[in-house]
Write a structure and sequence with these properties.
alpha/beta; 44% helix
């Protein structure tokens, strides 16, 4: 799967993943009002409005970017209707040829992790039939339980040609409470990075890259520089661009000398661009066009930083 992601990054010239993390406050009022008028102020109406919003975004940016990253919590909060919207969003993105990174942050003891891995990346058998329940291409994984929690995902990646991104140094302000703690004189995130390298060694192919990658926040460029050297064959998923403060010039060292090795996420900076002063002229009804303009601006920012 990493080969597919790399080929799409090269084809688009945009190491960008659009975070499909919708909130009702991001939706144009008329879109939400339409859903409420048809179904009332219900979970079903909220989920349908979110899917319609996603549809507009995906239609507007699918030719510009290689991948999207829906955050499952934004859908789970609306219960079963929200999960249906999540699955419909995945299917739509696949129809548009996009790589889907499911931001699910799963990780538990072996048997439970195996079930999570089957749900999001693998298949389940029901009688004589086999199904891919959510069918993302990649999933984010929490490594806190160690190898027991990660290996089931690695195994499913090997058998189904899928990939994972393991949380190593996250972009949130309090990440250092645990991730920066020193153990034998080294920060914990470095030790986790070494395990990511170990977990991914078996899946490194002729491209030189592994299906096991790392999550490293754009808000920590110095740590990103260290981890790039520590993980020479592992792609880095970089959250924290834009709304969280990361910018292209911070991210140069997340990439290798060929300009590969990282894909940068922006969520509300793109999908809620119409609410920003820079894109206010598009108006609420032009939210999808505003998102496209924000992607183009991000693409230019990264290109300048990488001297492309």
């Amino acid at each position: 799967m990493i080969n597919k992601l790399i080929s799409k990054i090269k084809a688009t010239g945009a190491p960008i993943v659009v975070g499909l993390d919708p909130q009702l406050s991001f939706l144009p009022p008329k879109l939400l009002e339409r859903a409420f008028s048809e179904q009332g102020e219900t979970l079903e109406a909220a989920a349908d409005a979110i899917y319609a919003f996603n549809e507009g975004i995906v239609q507007a940016v699918a030719d510009l970017v290689p991948a999207v990253k829906p955050q499952i919590a934004m859908y789970e909060q609306y219960g079963i209707p929200g999960l249906i919207a999540y699955k419909k969003t995945i299917d739509l993105c696949h129809e548009k040829g996009l790589v889907v990174i499911g931001d699910v942050k799963r990780g538990d003891i072996g048997s439970t992790s195996g079930s999570y891995a089957a749900a999001h990346l693998g298949t389940v058998k029901v009688g004589e039939k086999e199904y891919a329940p959510f069918d993302e291409d990649f999933a984010t994984v929490n490594p806190y339980l160690g190898t027991d929690g990660v290996k089931p995902f690695v195994d499913v990646c090997s058998s189904h040609d899928k990939g994972i991104f393991v949380l190593v140094k996250t972009s949130n302000p309090s990440s250092g409470e645990f991730q920066d703690r020193e153990i034998s004189g080294r920060p914990l995130y470095e030790l986790v990075g070494e395990k990511v390298r170990e977990w991914g060694e078996a899946s490194v192919d002729a491209s030189g890259w592994s299906n096991v990658g790392a999550v490293v926040g754009a808000t920590y460029p110095e740590q990103g520089k260290v981890l790039r050297k520590l993980l020479p064959k592992n792609f880095i998923l970089v959250p924290g661009y834009g709304a969280q403060g990361g910018k292209g010039s911070d991210l140069v060292h997340f990439f290798d000398e060929d300009g590969l090795g990282a894909i940068v996420n922006s969520s509300r900076g793109i999908i809620a661009a119409w609410k920003q002063e820079a894109y206010a002229s598009y108006g609420a009804e032009g939210y999808a066009d505003a998102a496209r303009a924000a992607v183009l601006a991000m693409k230019e920012d990264l290109a300048q930083a990488l001297n492309r």
